[in-house]
Amino acid sequence: MTPMTAMQRGPHNAITDVAGVRVGHATLVRGEGPLRPGQGPVRTGVTVILPPGDLREIYDTKFPAAAHVINGFGKALGLAQVAELGRLETPILLTSTLSIWRAADALLDHILAAHPDIGIRAPTVNVVAGECNDGWLNDIRGRHVGPREVAEALAAAAGGPVAEGSVGAGTGMVCYGFKGGIGTASRVWPSPLPGAGEEPITLGCLVLANFGRRRDLTIAGVPVGRLLATADEPAHEPARAPTTGGEAAPATATGGAAAPATTATPPGGPERPALGAPGTPRGATAIPTGEGGSVVVVLATDAPLTSRQLARIARRAAAGLARTGTVYWHGSGDFVLAFSTARRYPPYLPDEGAYLNPFFEAAAAATEEAVIRALVAARPMTGRDGHHVPTLPVDRVRRLLEERGILWDYGPEPAAPPTRT
C-alpha cells in the first residue's frame, strides 16, 4: 500500500505498468564553466513516451486522449488538436524549451519515414511535444537536442523500470529548489466493469518536474520545505525565462567555479551566493529566481475511456501537483496529457461516478508521488556559470516524516543512468 492512498502500486510503479507503454531517454551532459551560447555547458536531453505499437501503428490506431492546461505559460505542441479531436497519434516527446521545435521535427521525420501515406493518401500528423526550461543549468540557446538524440531516445524506448531524476528531458530541470527531472508512478485497482474478471485497471503517470519554491515543498502533508528552511543549504527556483549574461570564474575539477560564478540577475529577483551546504562545489552559486517553473504530466491507462472522461481525469493531476505545494504561478507552464490504450469503447455506465472516481484518486496520487520520485532519484548537478543545484536531503526528509508517524515509502535512489557526452 502507498502512504497516500489505499490503492496498490503497479509492479514497476511506473507509467510502463500500462501494458505496451514504453519510455526512452537520451541524456546530454558535457562541458563546464562559463556559458558559451551555442556551445555549452550542456545539461539537457529528450524523453519519449510511446503508446503500444510501432510509429505507423500508433498513427493508425489514434488512441483516445485529452489535454488539460493548468497554466499556459509554455510552448507545448499539438495539444489543441488533441483537445479538439480527442485522439493521440504520435509518441509524446519531452525536452528543453528552445529545443522543442527541432526535436519535434526530428520525431516527425521518423513518423513520415514509417508511414509514406501521411500527407498524400492519409491526413497529416499531429506531433505532440512538451517542454520545460532548463536554462539555469544548460546552454538553452544552443538547442542541443536534435535528430541524433531523438533517434537515440526512440531506440531506447522500452517497458519495465523507468530511469528517473536527472535523465532525458529531466537532465537540467529543477524542482522546489532541488534537482528535479523525470518521475513516474502508477496505481492499480480491481475493474468494476462487467466481464472484466480478474483483470485490474492500471493508471500510470510520468512527470517532467521543473517547478516550485523550496519553502512550499510538501511531502505527505508535511511542510518539509519550511522545516528545511533553517538549514544551511542553497536554494534555487527555476524561471520560465533564461537568465541574462554574466562572466563566470574558471571551473574547478569538480565542475564548480573557483570564485563567485555569475553576476547574472535572474528574472525573479537579485542573486545571492550559495549558503555553503555540504557537497556544494566550492564557489558554485544557487539563486532564487521567483515564482516560475513548469511541469508536464502524462497519464496513461489501459481502461476503456472516452476523450471526455480522460479530460476529467487529466484535470485531477492538478490536485496531485498541489499536494506537493505548488500554486501554479503566473510564469509556470503546467500541462497534462492523458490517453487510453484500450481498443474498445467503454460500456454504458448507469453510475459513471462510481467508475470514474478511482481514476480521479489514482491520477492525483500517482502525480503527487511521481514528483517526489523525481526529487528522490535526481543527482546534484553543476551547470553553466557554476550554477549548482543540490538534491533533496532524503535522509533528513525521511526523519521529518517518521517523527510525525508517516512511513517513508518512496523507494531508494535508483542507479545513475548512463549519459552521452
From TrEMBL:
Residues 231-288 are annotated as: Disordered. Residues 240-274 have a biased composition (Low complexity). It comes from the Bacteria. One of its GO terms (molecular function) is aminopeptidase activity. Belongs to the peptidase S58 family. This is Peptidase S58 DmpA. It comes from Thermaerobacter marianensis (strain ATCC 700841 / DSM 12885 / JCM 10246 / 7p75a).
